[in-house]
Amino acid sequence: ILNVEQSPQSLHVQEGDSTNFTCSFPSSNFYALHWYRWETAKSPEALFVMTLNGDEKKKGRISATLNTKEGYSYLYIKGSQPEDSATYLCASPETGKLIFGQGTELSVKP
Amino acid sequence: EAGVTQFPSHSVIEKGQTVTLRCDPISGHDNLYWYRRVMGKEIKFLLHFVKESKQDESGMPNNRFLAERTGGTYSTLKVQPAELEDSGVYFCASSHGRSSYNEQFFGPGTRLTVL
Q1: Residues B75/B33/A7/A73 CA torsion (nearest 10 deg)
Q2: From CA A14, how far away is CA A1, in angstroms rounded?
Q3: Which of chain A's residues have a Cβ under 8 Å away from the Cβ of B111?
Q4: N or C: which end of chain B has fewer CB within 10 A?
């Protein structure tokens, strides 16, 4: 079973700060990388599905990059807002199922 | 289009009791997955249905867990008898295809507490 790791585990920033966190995954036999945003008691919401080395995707103030050769993806949030507070999860598929990292819990203070 | 729904949202039971969780996937999605997040740890795969057939149940912890998917529609996950370590959030997800590129749509989860 492949191993997916995320860092940091938690992050506390002030409103307006830009922030980024990392997802690491094995670079061999890469298929795709999924990013999700999860607020407690709500459904994890898909942000991006990334497939190609060098991919960069954007959704509003959130963007993500992918490096499949070295096995990492970065998620960036520009000008964090309190409503960005959530746990950000990355996952790599393995025979259909998703293998998740532990998540990065982001807290944005007003 | 309705999303993935799960029932109940919370369940508190005593050790040794039985609990049944239900998942209704998005209509038309053949693939249904169960996952679990134990506090402080990563979300872990439990099993995968394609229609009514179990495709992969390698993540099921032990034989106290039983999953069914009647007629390829909704699914239930029964824990009998429940143990303390079964506490966590149980997520259900569904997808149209089973490709690595297919997005899995998640329900809000059932938070299970075993006392």
Answers
A1: -140
A2: 37
A3: 41
A4: N
| DSSP SS3 for B95 | strand
User: Mean pLDDT for each consecutive 10-residue tract of chain B (115 residues)?
Assistant: 92 98 95 94 95 94 95 95 97 87 92 97
Q: Do B108 and A51 touch (CB under 8 A)?
A: no
Encoded tokens for B89: 């959030």
Q: Is A3 on the interface with B (CB under 8 A)?
A: no
Q: Are B104 and B94 in contact (CB under 8 A)?
A: yes
Residue B1: predicted pLDDT: 64
Distance from CA of B51 to the nearest CA of A (A): 14
Cβ neighbours of A42 in B, within 8 Å: 108
Q: Which of A47, A49, A43, A34 is nearest to A91 (CA)?
A: A34
CB within 8 Å of B33: residues ≥ 6 apart:
A97, A98, B45, B46, B47, B48, B49, B92, B93, B94, B95, B104
For chain A, positions 10-39, list CB contacts with chain B under 8 A: 31-32, 34, 36
Whether the Cβ atoms of residue A10 and residue A105 lie closer than 8 Å to each other = yes
Torsion of CA A51, A57, A62, A65, to 10 degrees: 60
Closest CA to A22 of A58, A71, A74: A74
